[in-house]
Amino acid sequence: MTKLYLFILPILIGIITGMFLAYYPESESESSLLTITKLIDGGSPIMGNPNAPITILEWGDYQCTFCYKFHQDTLDIINEDFIKTGKVKLVFKDFPLNGPDSLLAAEAAYCAEDQKKYWQYHDELYKNWGGERTGWITRESLDRFGITVNLNLVEFNKCLDEKKYHEKVTSLHDFGKEIGIDATPSFLVFNSEKIIKIRGNQPLEVFLKTFDEL
């Protein structure tokens, strides 16, 4: 009986641990990092109704192939059916895995935010996605995207020259790593009681099931 107990106990512990990690990507000692305020603060402007009961926190990279696919396909449906109807809100935080160009693009999006054009510029980056580490993100291309969304380029380039948001983006990246983000896109979907982690560009059905759980 004792041998059976010693055999079953590690299995039960593993199951319980696995269930916990499905909702909290890090250990209990670090769960204080995962308050709603800490998760939302410092990222993009909120897309949707700030009072929506469910939040999607997306961790992304502007060069990431699967981030691009999420924004081209799944996000459009979520936006129409859940964000615009006030059921869900979205916050984007940068996790620039693909090097300096991804970091520069992220800084550019926040420079656009200074002119109240964050989401327009964010979308323009993904519309013009040119692959991973292919050199499509340059100061010239960033200016072209700025012209498309009617930015004041003098102010925009001054912001980039001064690296106004460099520390912000690197801090977001560091925070992501601290709470267990290790790939893009990654999502923390949560309400006031539960956090569910989705890793990668999963099918729409995965998001719908998550919304139902919350």
Q: Tell me the fraction of residues in β-strands, as a range.
A: 5-15%
Which oligomeric form is depicted?
single chain
Q: Give the count of structural domains.
A: 2
- At the first level of CATH, what is the class of the largest domain? Alpha Beta
Instruction: Examine the secondary-structure arrangement and name the CATH architecture of the largest domain.
Output: 3-Layer(aba) Sandwich
Give the beta-strand count: 4
Task: Provide the CATH superfamily of the largest domain.
Answer: Glutaredoxin
SS summary, helix count: 10
What's the SSE pattern? Answer: HHEHHEHHHHHEEH
Helix content: 40-55%
The dominant shape is globular
Main-sheet strand order equals 2-1-3-4
The rounded distance between the terminal residues' Cα atoms is: 40 Å
CATH topology of the largest domain: Glutaredoxin
Helix-and-strand structural type: alpha+beta
Roughly how many Å is the radius of gyration?
A: 19 Å
List low-pLDDT spans: 1-32
Mean pLDDT: 88
Biggest sheet overview = 4 strands, mixed
